[in-house]
Amino acid sequence: MTWRATTTIPDRIFACLAYLLPLFYVMPLGGFLFEMFPPLQALFIVVLPVALLYSIPFAGLIVFMLLYLLVVRNSRISLFIRYNTMQAMLMGIALFIAQLVLQLLTRVASFELLMKVLFNFIFIATVAGVIFAVVQSIRGIYAEIPTLSDATKSQVF
Fold first, then answer.
1. What ranges in 54-111 are assigned the alpha helix state H?
2. pTM of the model
3. Domain total for the chain?
4. What are phi and psi of 8, to 5 degrees?
5. Domain of 34?
6. DSSP annotation string for 26-42
7. Structural contact between residues 26 and 123, judged by C-beta atoms closer than 8 angstroms
8. Which of 26, 38, 65, 101 would disulfide-bridge 126, Cβ 3.0–4.6 Å?
9. 62 part of a folded domain
């Protein structure tokens, strides 16, 4: 679905770049899959620039605030870029909450198999969501991810 206007090639590229953040955030959860499938480690190459940025103290908070204030709330930037940036930020927030819950579960119980399954599930679901959103962005279509897109629309429109 396209709203308001057609998207340009630069808009599509910038919209895709926003999805590097959730891909970076989910990398620690993919450790079990990286051990089983070493070619998956090629994902690290894609998120390397983001990893270098996050070596700065408080970089996560700074990047989040800058993206929110300078991109999502800036009406001079294309709606397509703002929508995808907000959706990527919400994916990152969901991953942060999931990682907090997983840390709590690992301290409370030691179900190693359950932890591996949860880590793998979150990793695969996030990578699939990012791939879907990037493909849709390249096509110039707003990615509709259930629940996440509704929250994105409420923030951007």
1. 59-66, 79-108
2. 0.89
3. 1
4. -95, 170
5. 20-156
6. HGGGGHHHHHH-GGGGG
7. yes
8. 26
9. yes
